[in-house]
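TA notes, week 10

Several of you asked for a full example with nothing omitted. So below is the full record: structure tokens for the whole chain, then the designed sequence directly under it. When grading your own attempts, check the secondary structure regions first.
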């Protein structure tokens, strides 16, 4: 073996040199990409608010896994059929919060109703269009009323009764413009809420009307 090595020292050196170069080339052109990079979904062209996302609009690019945003989109099917919630530039990392379900399709028995101001007891300022909400009928307690009502907030001065859940159709300000979040976490809005419209059936409307006639207003909550 030693004799073979001495006689072919140059060939062995060349072999290891070529092996090292080959490994370097493989690492730079394939290995690094496979081990340190992962494909994420991006848009081929800019998308504007309300744009319906289709498969041909999307591309897969590989980025260093350390630079991926939280909730990045890794598969096209996860956002195909959704609509853009705001302007999204091409080749920008996409996250699930950028997209929402398309416009509502109402059932035959459903309508959109504006909640009268006098019916509203409270609602979160972070409420937005398409949120699922839970309506509670709220009424100041009559001290002479012997009825015992379970109170979700343990506040003995008010009755709070769960009515039903539904979806917010529109949230508008006093200029009739939609109130939008200016960041993913809803920490700030484009304006102040003045009008809330919800999806409701005739039966649900009659339920709300009956509560309102009996002195209740409604608290809107969402998760």
């Amino acid at each position: 073996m030693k004799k073979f090595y001495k006689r072919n020292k140059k060939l062995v050196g060349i072999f290891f040199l070529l092996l090292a170069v080959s490994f370097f080339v493989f690492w730079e052109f394939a290995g690094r990409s496979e081990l340190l990079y992962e494909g994420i979904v991006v848009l081929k062209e800019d998308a504007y608010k309300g744009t319906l996302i289709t498969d041909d609009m999307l591309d897969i690019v590989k980025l260093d896994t350390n630079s991926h945003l939280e909730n990045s989109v890794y598969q096209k099917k996860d956002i195909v059929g959704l609509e853009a919630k705001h302007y999204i530039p091409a080749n920008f990392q996409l996250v699930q919060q950028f997209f929402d379900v398309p416009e509502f399709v109402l059932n035959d028995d459903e309508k959109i109703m504006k909640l009268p101001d006098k019916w509203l007891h409270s609602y979160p300022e972070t409420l937005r269009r398409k949120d699922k909400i839970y309506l509670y009928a709220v009424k100041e307690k009559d001290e002479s009323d012997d009825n015992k009502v379970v109170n979700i907030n343990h506040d003995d001065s008010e009755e709070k009764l769960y009515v039903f859940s539904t979806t917010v159709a529109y949230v508008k300000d006093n200029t009739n413009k939609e109130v939008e979040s200016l960041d993913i976490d809803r920490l700030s809005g484009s304006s102040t809420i003045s009008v809330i419209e919800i999806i409701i059936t005739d039966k649900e409307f009659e339920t709300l009307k009956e509560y309102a006639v009996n002195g209740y207003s409604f608290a809107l909550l969402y998760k």
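The chain has three helices and ten strands. Use that as a sanity check on your answer.
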